[in-house]
Amino acid sequence: MYNIDIPELEPDRQYYFMNRCKELIYEKQVELNRPLTYCVTTFGCQMNAHDSEKLKGILEAIGYEEVDDESADFVIYNTCTVRENANQKLYGHLGLLKNYKKTKNPNMIIALCGCMMQETHVVETIRTKYPFVNIVFGTHNIYKLAELIYNNLTGEKRVIEILEKSTQTVEALPQKRKYSFKSGVNIMYGCNNFCSYCIVPYVRGREKSRKPEDILTEIRELARRGVKEVMLLGQNVNSYGKIYDYSDGKIVPMPEGDSITFPALLKKVCEIDGIERIRFMTSHPKDLSDELIKVMASEPKICKHLHLPVQSGSTDILAKMNRRYTKEGYLSLVDKIRQAMPDISLTTDIIVGFPGETEEDFLDTLDIVSKVKYDQAFTFIYSKRTGTPAASEVNQVPEDVVKDRFNRLLTLVNTISNERINRYSGQTKDILVEEINHQDSNLLTGRTEENITVHFEGDSSLIGDIIKVKLIECRGFYYIGERI
Ligand code: 5AD
Ligand code: SF4
Questions:
Q1: Phi, psi of 186 (to 5 degrees)
Q2: Which residues line ligand 2 (CB under 6 A)?
Q3: How far is the CA of 322 from the centre of ligand 1 (A)?
Q4: What is the pLDDT of residues 409-449, one digit of tens each?
Q5: Quick check: 420 and 346 in contact, CB under 8 A?
Q6: How buried is 62 (Cβ within 10 angstroms: 0-12 exposed, 13-18 middle, 19+ buried)?
Q7: Where do the domains of the chain lie, and which CATH numbers do they carry?
Q8: Among protein residues, the one whose CA lies closest to atom 6 of ligand 1
Q9: Can you tell me the distance from the alpha carbon of 115 to that of 475, in angstroms, rounded to the nearest whole number?
């Protein structure tokens, strides 16, 4: 029997539950005479990918071993709900898991978390139609994974805990990073923009920035462990520092003059020895400041790549989307950025078929794409998300019209990206070597600061190094290069 009290404060409380789970997992290993395994499947964005690294950190601390097999002892889906097809995918997978649990591994614990779980109707469906799911939690209590597992292992058949909002930001929990030399770092959570099509503010909650000291401490520690590239993550990094979330749960606006801006934070990250490349995402055009452009242009460690979602080229549609910029405003912002950094790589997100989009509006989207000449554009068909203002618009665009526009946009976007990527032919670039090529093990794969993938011959000992590679042959979206 344990007679120590369960700590109330985090992260001590979670370390307590990790230790208790570890004992229970060990007992189970002895009983089954084999290691216990886990499998994390991630849907969606970089933010979710980074959350999964936190889930993995906790699972490994408990004693599970990672496998790439959905009949593992602990299977968890970190879900996305930004578009409807992401939801459909999950229900498909769940059918498969039910079968694995029955036929392959009756010990399986099945858990679901992430954005989709913040939707009441989804949790109700899981509760009633998917009784074999053991643990369900949302985006605000990922840090509690060990406690939820403990509750399940000690008798609670179904553990469902969805919080309306974050009550605290828990620092200093374990993480298992996919790469040893690059890492995502959350700088803020949530979003206050309420673009009219987007479900993110409802499932990720209000915007909160982490304290600069906490971020810098984490990055210094990453650098100490050999990380060279960091990706600063937030739904809208350009509004970093306006509202802080102190770890004791108090959410406070920063006093005027006291707050640190995103560019100021970037400058501090640049000062950290060992960090050689800094990326960030995502930037909302309405908040991108001159100060940021200046800092980006002057700091060699900041990658010359900007993901600047435009969503539409039509000023009318942008207003309906609640984006708070116009076509002309966006174009002049791009001019300003290119004046300061002529060779910068610009990427974007575009939605086709937003309610009420006319052919003329769509031509404006084609026009802005032709004018900006994006290095890469991620194109999406508008997806109606229940609860968002746009979902109640009566003027939905017919499916065949949307498909036709989507194809026309894709053709243009691809032609332009091909032209853009070709401009590097023959240049020698610094490449961060990431991995052995999946198709050909004689090749290594790495990325330029513009985020272009390059494959070249080399030895796996180079993984994690930044080396010079000449870009020889452009093959669509990637290059074949030669180490020099
Ligand atoms: N339908 C289609 N695309 C969407 N996105 C966000 N919400 C929707 C939606 N309801 C796209 C936006 C955003 C990207 C992450 O996903 O382009 O920038
Ligand atoms: Fe969604 Fe707009 Fe927030 Fe991006 S800025 S997460 S598109 S609401």
A1: -70, 130
A2: 191, 193-195, 198, 200-201, 235-236, 284
A3: 13
A4: 999 999 999 999 999 999 999 999 999 999 999 999 999 99
A5: no
A6: buried
A7: 12-161 (3.40.50.12160), 179-303 (3.30.750.210), 305-423 (3.30.750.200), 425-483 (2.40.50.140)
A8: 198
A9: 36
Q: Amino acid identity, residue 427?
A: Q
Residue 234: φ, ψ to 5°: -170, 155
Nearest to 232 by CA among 162, 131, 302: 302
Span 202-225, pLDDT tens digits:
999 989 898 888 899 999 999 999
Is 461 in contact with 455 (CB distance < 8 Å)? Answer: no
To the nearest 10°, report the CA torsion of 349, 353, 356, 358.
100
Instruction: Work out the burial of residue 224: count CB atoms within 10 Å of its CB; fewer than 13 is exposed, 13-18 middle, 19 or more buried.
Output: exposed
- Residue 248's identity, in one-letter code, is D
In single-letter form, the type of residue at position 350 comes to I
| Angstrom distance (rounded) from CA 212 to CA 242 | 12
**Residue 74: CB partners within 8 Å, gap ≥ 6?**
36, 37, 38, 39, 59, 64, 108, 109, 111, 149
The Cα 65–Cα 59 span in angstroms is 8
Q: Identify the band that residue 85 occupies on the pLDDT scale cut at 50, 70 and 90.
A: confident
Distance CA 237, CA 261 (A): 10
Test site for ligand 1: of 84, 198, 396, 402, most ligand atoms within 8 A of the Cβ:
198
User: Tokens for 434?
Assistant: 């990431």
Task: Kindly give, in sequence order, each residue whose CB lies less than 8 Å from that of residue 92, ignoring residues fewer than 6 positions away.
Answer: none
* Ligand 2 atom at shortest distance from the alpha carbon of 236: 5
pTM: 0.93
Q: By the 8 A CB rule, do 135 and 98 touch?
A: no
Rounded alpha-carbon distances, angstroms, from residue 140 to 133, 212, 213, 215, 240: 19, 20, 22, 19, 19
Evaluate whether 413 touches 313 at the Cβ level (below 8 Å). no
CB 166 within 8 A of CB 353: no
Contact 38, 77 (CB under 8 A): no
Q: 181, exposed or middle or buried, with CB in 10 Å at 0-12, 13-18, 19+?
A: buried
